[in-house]
Amino acid sequence: MALWNQRNLDPPVVLNAPCKSKHIKSQISALTKTSTSMLNYYSTLNTFEKAAAFETRFVNRFKFRLRNMHGFQVMRRVNQTLIRIKNLDLVQVIMDLHSFLPESEYIPQTVNLPVRSNLEYLLVRMQGLCKLLMRVVYLTKEAARFHVKQIVNMHLYPTYVMFLGLMGELWLFSRSVCRRTVQFYDELYPALEILPETKVSWLPEHYQLPVSLAAWLGEEYERDILQCGDANGATSSNWLGSEGDADLFTLLQHSTTDGEEQLLSRKQETEAANKSVEEALTAPSFSSVPKAMLLQSLRSDTGEVVERKGRNAPATQFDAKQLDHIRSKFHVQQFLKQERSNRTDSPAKALTKGLSEQQFGDFNVRLMKEFNRLSSVEFVKFFKEQFLQLVTEGT
């Protein structure tokens, strides 16, 4: 099996080594800038993750009712591919690399850089991500063909319209993420030359990383990811191989790549606006509440407060002395690595065992955004404040 296609690929040890920066400051700054952009991009794909969550929910909801439908079987394969993409945990891999990079504004003469094997592992994971995204693009088109036929036959019309819209959304986001991943790969690859090597190479002897990821992906990438229309800029009416009128594919049709990016931006802005409106509607309003009731609500409750803890509620008491051994950025990294291992292998030993993966992941992202900006002492103080708030309040 190809290296990029291995599910349980053993990562190299996260290490750094001293390196002279006299002639490579521009390359180091470019690497830092690219890793920062990648961290910000892949950690904010909430809309794509929401669409993938809908896909999983639909597959589980209709797995018995539609189990003999070909289009639904294709949707199950889409869901399996999306689960593999989630298990790549690319954000964590980027964080491991980014944590050892210096600030782009100031680079000392001797700087500790991550070893080459860490970047090689990230590039291999990006190869696998692009392959999986291209499979999602292909499978969503296959499922869309079937859904359209069912819609034309008026069979379970509302259900298949919903399925078709979801396939279009996943198709759109997968193409966009795949293009951005190829761009990031091409920006990261030149940095292999400036990173220090280890005595034992992590890559197998016969494995060579491609210089251009787009060239490695080949014709399928150009056809399914880059191609948006014909020479006149108009989308072909039978690009899905459908028969007759193709107006039902309006959601999936875009004349240019810029048109797709604009649609994605509008969709994200619309969801953000809808979220703001929803929060405003659910916020308490006192304009129509009688004054007597407002005064009554201000009076203290004479009842006894009863504490109730949910099954997975975070601990309300935490001994801050457990963090006294953390005195540098390196200690913080080791602590987070050990905590992540405990959450997977020994949940009872984890200090954050009552927190969800999303809460713990958001906590890591907040830390990495301040890693290079703050000094070691300031970062340790910031970490302890954030961690205490996390375990006591669950936020």
From TrEMBL:
Which InterPro entries does the record match to this protein?
Nepro (IPR052835), Nepro_N (IPR027951)
Q: Which Pfam families does the entry link to?
A: NEPRO_N (PF14780)
Q: Outline the extent of the Nucleolus and neural progenitor protein-like N-terminal domain.
A: 4-189
| Domain of life, per lineage | Eukaryota
Provide one Gene Ontology cellular component.
nucleus
Q: Which GO terms describe its biological process?
A: positive regulation of Notch signaling pathway
Q: Which PANTHER family match?
A: NUCLEOLUS AND NEURAL PROGENITOR PROTEIN
Q: Name it.
A: AGAP003214-PA
This protein's species is Anopheles gambiae
Q: Which gene encodes it?
A: 1273889
